[in-house]
Amino acid sequence: MNSNNDHNLHRVQGHKKDDAHSHLPSDPELRVKAIETLLLSKGLIDSKTLDELIDTYENRIGPQNGAKVIAKAWVDENYKKRLLDDATSAIRELSYQGRQGENMVVVENTADIHNVVVCTLCSCYPWPVLGIPPTWYKSDEYRSRTVREPRKVLSEFGLNIDSKIEIKVWDSTAELRYLVLPIRPDGTENMNEEQLAELVTRNSMIGTGLPENSK
Amino acid sequence: MSRLHDMGGRYGDGPIPVPRNKNNQVENSEPTFKHEWHAKAWAITLAAGALGEWNLDVSRHYRECLPPKDYMNYSYYEKWLAGLTNLLVDKKLISIEELKKFISLVQEDNSTEDLKENVKLDERTWLAKDVQKTLGWGGPSLRKTDITPLHKIGDSVITTKYNPNENVIGGHTRLPSYAMGCEGKIFSYNGTHVFPDKNAHGIGENPLPLYTVEFKASELWGLAAENGNDKIYLDLWEPYLKIKA
Predict the structure, then answer these.
(1) Is the ipTM of this complex over 0.90?
(2) Is A22 helix (H, G, I), strand (E, B) or coil?
(3) Is A124 a catalytic residue?
(4) Beta strands B241-243 and B231-237: pairing type?
(5) Which residue range is the domain that position B78 belongs to?
(6) Which superfamily, per CATH, for A62-206?
(7) Chain B partners of A134 at a C-beta cutoff of 8 Å?
(8) Chain B contacts of A110, Cβ < 8 Å?
(9) Which residues contact B35 (CB under 8 A, 6 or more apart)?
(10) Of the four listed, A2, A131, A212, B110, which is most buried by Cβ atoms within 10 Å?
C-alpha cells in the first residue's frame, strides 16, 4: 500500500488553461463579493458565522493573550517551568487553546540565546496567543531572509544582537506553533503580573522585538 | 525542484516592510485586517473549509499550485481567494458557470440581496453558534500510533534531496528546499503527526514521527552564513530524514 513503485506513483497534473481562479475579476473586492454572494446563495456559508469569526480575531484573540502568558511566566517560576515543558497545557491553563495553537512550543530567550520565529513555506503563526499574523510576518521579505540572515533582518526591526549571542531561528514547517519567552526587563521588580503584561509587545513574542522599557 | 512558495533563503528580496509610527519607532499593533475584503476573504476560507470537503494540507497545496506568475502577482489574501476558488470548483461545491454568473452580477452592480435571502442552509454549513467551540477544538495533527521513532535525540541525520514527496511527483511537502541534502541533529521528538505529503493529496493521514531538527547556519549557508554557530530549527517528518552513514 505504501510502495512507491511506478504503478502507485501519483503525478500532479499540470495547470489547465481554464483554472477557475483565472475567471476572477481583477478588483479583489469584487472577487470576494462574487464568491461570498455565490456561497451565501447556495447556503454553504452563513453571514453570521463570518461576522462571529471576524469579531473573534479583531476583538478577543490577539497578542494581549500571549502577553498574559509571558507575564505569568515572569512572576511564577513553577508556571514558567510548566510552560517550557509542555506549552500547550500551560497555555490552556489560561484558557487559550485551539485552532493554530494545537501544539505549542515556548522557546526562552536568555543572556546567551535569542530566538526568532518564521514560516518560510506559508504563514504559520500561533493564533490563540498572538491572533492573525501582521503583514510583515507574511511578507516574501521576512519569509525568504530570516533563515539566511536573521541578524540583518532583526536590525531592520531595530534589534542589534551581539555577535556573542547565539541566534536560534524556528521555521514552523509542521503544526507546532512557536512563542518566544522574552527576558523580563530590568527595573520591573515591583510590577505585578497585569503591569508586566502591558510591557510585552507582540514582536517580543515573535523574536523581532524586545518588551518595552528594556532597551 | 520546488515551487515559488518555498522561498526560504532566496536572494533578491528587499527590506522587511516594518511598520513605523510618527517617531520612527517600530509599530507593534496594526489592524487585524487592513481592508474589509481581507477579513471577508479570510473568514470565507475558514467557513468553506469547515464544510469538511478538504483538510488544511489540501488548502495549502492549492495555494502553492497557483501558476507562478499569479502566485507572485497576488497579494496574500488574493492567493487565499484564488486557491479557494479552485478548490470550490474541483470539489464541485460551485461550477465555473455559477462563478461566471455571479461575477457578472457583482460587476454589473446588480442587487444581489434577494439571492441571499430565505436561503436554506446546507447541512454541512458552519453555524455561528458553533464557531467558538470549533475554534477551541482546532484541528490537531497529533495522532496516537504504535510507531517507534527511528531516530533518537542527538542523532545525526541527513535530509533527502530533490523530491521529498515519495508518493506524488511535484506534490506537497514541508521540507523546504534550503534544507534539502543537509546534515542536522535531532533536537526533539514530537510524536506521530498527520503526514502532509499524503494528506494534501487525499491519500490518507498516515501519521508519522515528527522531529525538530537542528541545523547549523554554516551547514545551510556555508561561507554566506552571518554567524556559522547560529542555529536553524525545522520540524521534519521521518521520511525526510536519512541516518548519517
Answers:
(1) yes
(2) helix
(3) yes
(4) unpaired
(5) 36-119+126-137
(6) Nitrile hydratase alpha /Thiocyanate hydrolase gamma (3.90.330.10)
(7) 19, 30
(8) none
(9) A29
(10) A131
To the nearest whole angstrom, how far is the Cα of B17 from the nearest Cα of chain A?
Answer: 5
Q: CA-CA distances (angstroms) from residue B123 to A36, A46, A50?
A: 18, 11, 17
- Judge whether B197 and B166 are in contact, CB under 8 Å: yes
How far, in Å, CA of A19 to CA of A21, rounded? 6
Q: Domain count for chain B, please give it.
A: 2
**CB B124, CB A39: distance < 8 Å:** no
pLDDT tens, B170-184? 899 999 999 999 999
Query: Does A139 qualify as catalytic in the annotation?
Result: no
Nearest-by-CA chain A residue for B7: A144
The answer to the question of residue B3 being in a domain is: no
Residues B175 and B239 in one domain: yes
How far apart CA A121 and CA B175 sit, in angstroms, is 9
Q: Convert the pLDDT of each residue in A25-35 to its tens digit.
A: 888 999 999 99
Q: Is A62 on the interface with B (CB under 8 A)?
A: yes
Question: In this predicted structure, what is the pLDDT of residue B111?
Answer: 74
The reply to whether A143 touches chain B by the CB within 8 Å rule is yes
CA distance A106 to A93: 15
